[in-house]
Amino acid sequence: MSRFPRRWALVAAFPLSLGMGCSLIPLHVQTSGFGEPEPVPLPAENRAQPDAQAREAQDKEDERAEELKDELASLRARIAEGKDPVEDARGFAERVIEARGTKAARRGEFEVPKLEMEALGYLDDAIEKAPSLELFDLLVDVAKLPEADAVVLRACPRVRSKVPAADVHSFVGECLHRADDDAKKLKWQNAAGDVARFRKAEAERVAAEAAAREVERKAQAKTTRYVSAAVFASGRCKFSNCLKDGWTASTPEGDIDVRCSFGDCLKDGWEARFPDGTTARTRCSFSNCMKDGWETSFPDGTTARTRCSFSDCMKNGWDTDLPGGETARTRCSFSDCGKDGWTTDLPGGRSVQCRCNFQKCFVDGATCN
Predict the structure, then answer these.
(1) Residue 198 domain-assigned?
(2) Could you tell me the maximum CA-CA distance found in the chain, to the nearest angstrom?
(3) Which PROSITE patterns match (predicted)?
(4) How far apart are CA 364 and CA 172, in angstroms?
């Protein structure tokens, strides 16, 4: 026989059952002043709001899908009557484009390929009756299936005379694309001349883009040269010690090798050797880089100047003004570059973080990534 009266057994069981019931309620957890988590129930209205919004959005989309079905059926009937086939073909195609982007289409409620081919037929007839670039663009937007290419090619000669001069290039490109780049399939008057001008313009565009990329590449390479030579520890530290052994920076042209003068970059400066054999030399101002900054002379005659913030590089970091107006900015971690390292923000968004080995940069060097 139990030593506890029945009523006490019920009382003891009640907190357990209550706790089990509460576990079904979503909770926010916050901590008390003693670090213990305190479960706080999420208000019911907050839980219900996202679900209600999602249901409302889904209901609206489902409602629109039903409207599209009715509108497509109505337009199909109107086209069969032949009262306004051009405008009705336009409306039918626009609704097909809208329908294929719906969840209902992904669920299979719209037979999209079948609807697209139906719209193509209507637009084909409409363009024959009233050719226009607007209808052609709509035709191209509907014509995603490979078998639609023939319809687009049939429309090209009908529409060509309606195309404004500013749109001829893209029009010819679309027709040529649908013809698998076979100019002989384009049947309008002077199609050969249009294709020749299109290909010439495309060749010029490709050449201009290549030239622009080359200019950008050279500019980036020059910036990389400037940064690697003038910004302290802007590459991979040699032997994990940029202060004594220098660093290496990789470029598409090859590695830039930086060596500390007399084994002490921050006192005697450094020399950077570029892949083409030229060099840039950095000298500490007044033989004290960490107070007075430094100056780097490049083989192209330009210079970069570095200033210590508040005349104390080791505490406040430094700024390097590069040729061309860009700046690399270095800030000490916890206001102590010699112990905690530094981070340098380089032009172009890249950054280099240096950590002191064993918290002694001047004794054990720094490792930079």
Answers:
(1) no
(2) 109
(3) PROKAR_LIPOPROTEIN
(4) 67
- Over residues 316-346, the pLDDT tens digits come to 999 999 998 999 999 999 999 888 988 999 8
CB of 368 within 8 A of CB of 237?
yes
Domain that holds residue 87: 57-164
Whether 340 and 226 map to the same domain: the answer is: yes
pLDDT for 173-186, tens place per residue?
A: 999 999 999 999 99
Do 234 and 357 lie in a common domain? yes
Q: How many domains does the chain have?
A: 2
- Assess if residue 357 is contained within a domain: yes
Query: Model's pTM, two decimal places?
Result: 0.65
Average pLDDT for residues 85-105, to the nearest whole number?
95
Whether residues 243 and 351 share a domain: the answer is yes
Q: Which pLDDT belongs to residue 10?
A: 40
CB 140 within 8 A of CB 174: yes
What mean pLDDT value characterizes the chain?
Answer: 86
Long-range (24+ apart) CB contacts under 8 A made by 63-68 are: 64/102, 65/99, 65/102, 65/103, 65/104, 65/109, 65/110, 68/95, 68/98, 68/99, 68/102, 68/104, 68/110
